[in-house]
Design goal:
- The structure is a single chain.
- The chain contains 11 helices and no strands.
- The protein is mainly alpha-helical.
- It has one domain.
- The longest helix is centred in the last third of the chain and has 34 residues, at 232-265.
Length: 266
């Protein structure tokens, strides 16, 4: 039982990062299907890596470089997996009108104007949002945002249909994830994805949870309306959008707390 769960986790780790995994870990469509429950747990590793790099860099470098290096670390660890999906989604939904046209554009590995602009915008917002936080709050934000945003993305596998399931596209990266999550699998993903919220105050969590839910719901509704479900690029786009939403919500909450502290001290 424990060995099987470890095998599922290592399959998730292999799928979403460039980290080596033990040789005894098997690989199959079925294992990857059921490894979705551990996607948010992979986010813990990514978030803690970014937090560690930021903390170490901030000991000797200005905040701008520390934030930039932490972003580079998380992108390198994942091979820009989610960023690539976001860029493809921007190209597909920005440049396509009909369902088949959108899917064809997203399948093209080349990046277009919409993808380039989208990536510059979202990476810039991430950088500025993290830079506006204090040195002590950036690591918390990273550890919260990466698991929770991956859980938000994982919920789409439960909520929507995989639109390429009946297409002869064996190269699609999310094809093995066409299996819809069971309630128990979603509960495990929720446990790992929402656990970092315990690092926040009630006010901070109150700001993060509704915004993540709204962004996820709007993304799911948009994908269903435009293409009838999700693709791997849609999952990556949702992860990126909710990660940014978390940083924005935390900025707002921390500014509100600072204003309250200032007013109470007067």
């Amino acid at each position: 039982m424990i060995r099987h769960e470890l095998e599922l986790f290592f399959n998730a780790l292999r799928f979403f990062t460039r980290l080596p995994i033990p040789r005894w870990v098997g690989h199959s469509t079925d294992l990857l299907n059921h490894s979705a429950r551990y996607f948010p747990l992979v986010g813990w590793l990514v978030g803690m890596t970014g937090a560690a790099v930021f903390w170490l860099a901030s000991l000797a470098l200005p905040p701008t470089l520390a934030v930039a290096l932490s972003m580079v670390a998380t992108i390198s660890l994942t091979g820009a997996f989610h960023e690539d999906g976001f860029g493809d989604a921007c190209d597909g939904f920005g440049g396509g009108w009909a369902r088949e046209q959108i899917l064809a554009i997203m399948k093209d590995s080349r990046i277009g104007a919409y993808g380039t602009i989208g990536l510059v915008a979202i990476l810039g917002i991430k950088f500025l949002a993290l830079l506006e936080m204090g040195d002590g709050t950036v690591p918390v934000a990273l550890v919260v945002a990466h698991p929770l945003s991956r859980f938000a993305s994982t919920t789409l596998i439960r909520m929507l249909d995989y639109v390429r399931e009946h297409q002869p596209d064996e190269t699609a990266r999310a094809k093995p994830l066409a299996h819809r999550l069971s309630r128990s699998e979603l509960a495990i993903a929720a446990l790992f994805g929402c656990a970092p919220l315990l690092l926040l105050t009630g006010l901070e969590a109150l700001g993060v949870i509704p915004l993540v839910a709204i962004v996820t719901f709007c993304a799911a509704r948009y994908f269903r309306r435009r293409i009838g479900g999700y693709t791997g690029d849609c999952l990556g786009a949702t992860q990126q959008l909710t990660e940014v939403a978390i940083y924005i919500a935390l900025n707002f909450a921390w500014l509100f707390e600072e204003a309250e502290d200032l007013s109470s001290s007067i």
